[in-house]
Amino acid sequence: MGDVFAALSDPTRRRILELLAQSDKTAGEIADCFPITKASISHHLNVLKAAGLIRDEREGQKIRYRLNTTVFQEMMKWFFTITGEESDHE
Q: Residue 65 in 3-state DSSP?
């Protein structure tokens, strides 16, 4: 779970996740939302992918990114377990 928290610690990566929560996007569509280089966006996407927070799928010459909601569900379950709270989402 450490990789997940490390990935979430960066505001750019959190913003990428917010964008992907709205809809699946290509790397170019994501990059258009930031004033940083495409190489930097690629790095952030790789970190998010390594943490299991996003998935990618090739569509011809483009790669489309989407949230991996399973990881978020596991995080919420873990959070409720360590806080002693019951989850209404099960």
A: strand
The helix (run of H) or strand (run of E) holding residue 82 is: helix 69-83
Q: What is the pLDDT of residue 82?
A: 85
All domains of the chain in start order, with CATH? 2-83 (1.10.10.10)
Please spell the DSSP secondary structure of 3-64, one letter per residue. HHHHHHTSHHHHHHHHHHHH--EEHHHHHTTSSS-HHHHHHHHHHHHHTTSEEEEEETTEEE
CB within 8 Å of 6: residues ≥ 6 apart: 47, 51
Question: C-alpha angle with apex 51: 14 to 9, nearest 5 degrees?
Answer: 35
What is the pLDDT, as a whole number, of residue 76? 78
14-47: pLDDT as tens digits:
999 999 999 999 999 999 999 999 999 999 999 9
